[in-house]
Amino acid sequence: MHDESKNKPEANAEGADPARRNFMKNSALAGLAGAAGLALAGCGRKGEHGGAEGAAGHDGEGQRKHGEHEAASDHVPPGQLDEYYGFWSGGQSGEVRLVGVPSMRELMRIPVFNPDFTIGWGVTNESKRVLGPNFPPGGDCHHPHMSQTDGHYDGRYIFINDKAHTRVARIRCDVMRTDRIIDVPNVQAIHGLRVQRAPRTGYVFANGEFMIPAPNDGRDLEDPKKYQTMFSAIDGDTMEVAWQVLVDGNLDNTEADYAGKYAISTCYNSEGGLDLPGTMQAERDWAVVFNIARIEEAVKQGKFKTIGDSKVPVLDGRHGSALTLYIPIPKNPHGINASPDGKYVVANGKLSPTVSVIEWSRIDDCFAGKLKDPRDTVVAEPELGLGPLHTAYDGRGNAYTTLFIDSQIAKWNIADAIAAHNGKKVNYLRQKIDVAYQPGHCHTSMGESHDADGKWLVSLNKFSKDRFLPTGPLHPDNDQLIDISGETMKLVADGPVYAEPHDVILLHRRLLIDKVKKSWERDDPFFAETVAMAKKHGVNVLSDSKVIREGRKVFVYMTSAAPIFSLGSFKVKKGDEVTVVVTNIDAVEDVSHGFCIVNYGINMEISPGATASATFTADKAGVFWYYCTFFCHAMHMEMSGRMLVEA
Ligand code: CUK
Ligand code: CUA
Ligand code: CA
Question: Which residue ranges does the record annotate as region Disordered (predicted)?
């Protein structure tokens, strides 16, 4: 399709065979369009290098021109810290991963929607209070976003969606632990998720992707015209759904402005289609803008209804509503990304080779009645290449858009794209770089805040193909690290990852380094309920070792200090409901203990200062050893005891 050799040296690095690249491209095209028997309407290319004739997108030339810039190194010497922390969504693994950038070293995994035996997530009572009593087997998380204050990351929380079970979770950044998970009512599959940037978070915005009957209780099964979905605003402090807005079409990704006035969501199914061809009929779908002040006012005035058992105010934001604005966007748009200068938001066309640049101030004008046609909010529609999915920013006026089908990232200039839209003869395209392969999101360092610093870009590629040693039929994804600090993008590293990080945020370490706790504080709410229970039993968890029986319920309290549990054994009767509470009184940084009961499915992590507990039925008689699972001491193997279960 075009001369692959232009993308040197990156594309010609070992293992990047141009012929295979074309195969990947064509198969992706077939997958997108062929399956539906439809052409990719509007995807014709004007030139070899996207829409801008003779653009600097010919990056081979670009590199010669600016050849003085050496790619930054991803090497972080032993003992040195990465400059950035990346919060990687774990996709269908249900977890969040903390990764150092540029080293791409994985520092930690934070279980969110997934059970995790390492720390006993889904085993301990403390985690079950977060997960709920009947927690589902996992989740599908896509979009991690940190809370903000006035458009700056504030280091308090990470919020993340669960598409698989229609939930939203909050992670405390001080202890890197999930502390709240909520179900979102009246909708199905939370996909897009973002935080309100100003004055603070504030709201967490969440898109219900799929359209369903309301209420979804068996009625209207065969009547898709009655299917609908809603946009939800969650109070990030209380984790309660504040309000929902009924929309036309479906909802894909969402974004917020920098002024605290609007949220905006893409819709790829304006058609209300039930299958792939059904969602690809219209040349334009839309982005829908939510006017937060008007919505809050309408809630205050009681202009809402509720659905079924839910008490959440539901407002009508369908076409004609004063609460929303529908901006036509070509075609099946996907990602939506606000520029860090606070002026623009870019909707990514997916089945159109374009992205649509919308100016927030024109949205003001539209809501004020000064602009009549919502399309007039679009101030540029640059053509970038095939399959634009997501856009990131460097804080220097440039945007970076992933091209899924082309397996490239297009760097383009926003001001030039607007000038070109106004008829000026300028090239907005700066460079295209090959990535391996099929990128979804890309993200820049600090790129979703006013502090976008334009140092690094990570491209989250869905396919790794032959970039790594074979791992069986299931391949890892490939996250590629790209230096964007100079004029030209430079590929620096490949990093295999377990499926499937959709999105990531890259935060400067200054946001977290002094705020993250190295041990638990004793009054931490995470285990406060367990400590309160002990108190009721007259137990001081820091010093007491006690077994307390209340009928068939047995409570076992002990402490851990390397290398011993304070109880060498305890006795219960078969059929008892047993609650073991362990408090780690080691105050030494990094001395975590684990408490595992063999053949009983119990393991929990107890880090310095923590109290952890697990409740189970002693349904097998006999001797069952418990032991410490974290190698904590030279005598760690000896850190054990016996649970004696009488027949
Ligand atoms: S989505 Cu997966 S690549 Cu869920 Cu943000 Cu676009
Ligand atoms: Cu405690 Cu190993
Ligand atoms: Ca569509």
Answer: 1-20, 44-78
